Amino acid sequence: MSRFVDTVVASLAVVALVVCTGDVAGAQGVAALQQLDGRASASLRAQVTVVADSVAHAGLPVAPLVDKALEGISKGADDNRIMIAVRGVANDLGIARRALGPSSDNELAAAVAALRAGSTPAGLTRLRTELPGRQLVVPLSVLASLIVDGAPAQSAIVAVVANARQRDDSGLLAYGRTVSHDIAGGVAPLTAITGTQATPHAMSTFKPAFTGGKTAPLPAPPKPKP
Fold it and tell me: Would you say 174 and 163 are in contact if contact means Cβ atoms under 8 Å apart?
């Protein structure tokens, strides 16, 4: 379960950083980049600033770039390696926005975490399509956790959608914790994510996705009781 907590906390920490920096490009850049003061070399800060300026003017959040730079600094990475990672996050932000369409900065930050865990852009699009009107911060964070825990990305997407249709965010987080606990206890990832489904309805249409070949259709929402 600790891996699940670490993955989700890391995703939501970036989201929290986005919230603190605001949505206006200039204010966002200043507030986020100030966190590098006293921690990054002058050269690194200048390089991050250039990338951040480009990202902010594209209407994308700067906070994930700063978070990645701070992560590299905390690990003792050299400036070149840190900038490779920062540019990678900038690229992923663009991919995430194209995949999700109109999105909050929080969703984009969580989507980057999912992409870096191993999700495909098509997987992000599928979440948006199958969960219309829902904020995707928690579903994307749980998706990242499932992939990190060893579930194939496509299977993890189906699992998240099946559960998100029948659980609120707190319930979806509880699902992710249960799966992570089961995997840590030796349960195979595919078994863990199918064995913790919300209802028999989800189970009946969920399992075939793991038999290979074409992906099974996502389960339809349960019909309301008369």
Answer: no
Q: What is the pLDDT of residue 18?
A: 47
Ramachandran category for residue 100: left, alpha or beta (phi over 0 → left; psi -120 to 50 → alpha): alpha
The CA-based angle 173-179-181, given to 5 degrees, is 105
Residues 150, 169, 160, 113, Cα dihedral to 10°: -50
What's the pTM value of the predicted model, to 2 decimals? 0.72
| CA-based nearest residue to 123, from 153, 165, 95 | 153
Query: Which portions of the chain are predicted below pLDDT 50?
Result: 9, 13-25, 198-226
Q: Hey, where are the domains in the chain? A: 2-210
To which residue do tokens 């793991």 refer? Answer: 210
Measure the CA–CA gap between 94 and 55, rounded to whole angstroms.
9
